[in-house]
């Protein structure tokens, strides 16, 4: 994670070993960013305390990365992760599933020791 000339020094650049975005997730993220008017925006993924298993994912859209963020470009999408969340997310894949029940963004996380029955939280 070495800074590059076009990225401010307080922002680190990561790669898909941290998190990978599938084609279906990338398509949905592009659509949602366009609706916000932020075509060059970023998706922030964080791991926060909560849910029935102890940890849960929080996703938000922002215009640009913040200081200390790790920026990963995958499938043409820029994903930002804070250093603490990166410890839990390394090796994960973000997918988007369209379904009547259980659809939406799904994080496939190899670090999750267990997850709840609803699939919304996990423990590490």
> In CATH terms, what is the architecture?
Sandwich
Here the CATH topology equals: Hypothetical Protein Aq_1857, Chain: A
| Strand arrangement, major sheet | 1-5-6-3-4-10-9
Strand content: 35-45%
Shape: globular
The structural domain count equals 1
CATH H level, superfamily name: HesB-like domain
What is the SS-derived class?
A: alpha/beta
Helix content: 10-25%
Average per-residue pLDDT, rounded, comes to 86
Q: What is the helix tally? A: 2
CATH class: Mainly Beta
Poorly predicted spans: none
Describe it.
With 124 residues, this protein is an alpha/beta fold. The chain is 17% helix and 38% strand. The protein contains two helices and ten strands. The strands form two sheets. A seven-stranded mixed sheet has the order 1-5-6-3-4-10-9. Strands 2-7-8 form a three-stranded mixed sheet. The radius of gyration is 14 Å and the shape is globular.
Topology:
Layout: E1 12-13, E2 19-21, H1 23-36, E3 42-49, E4 55-62, E5 70-74, E6 77-81, H2 83-89, E7 92-97, E8 104-108, E9 114-115, E10 121-123
Parallel strand pairs: 1-5, 2-7, 3-6
Antiparallel strand pairs: 3-4, 4-10, 5-6, 7-8, 9-10
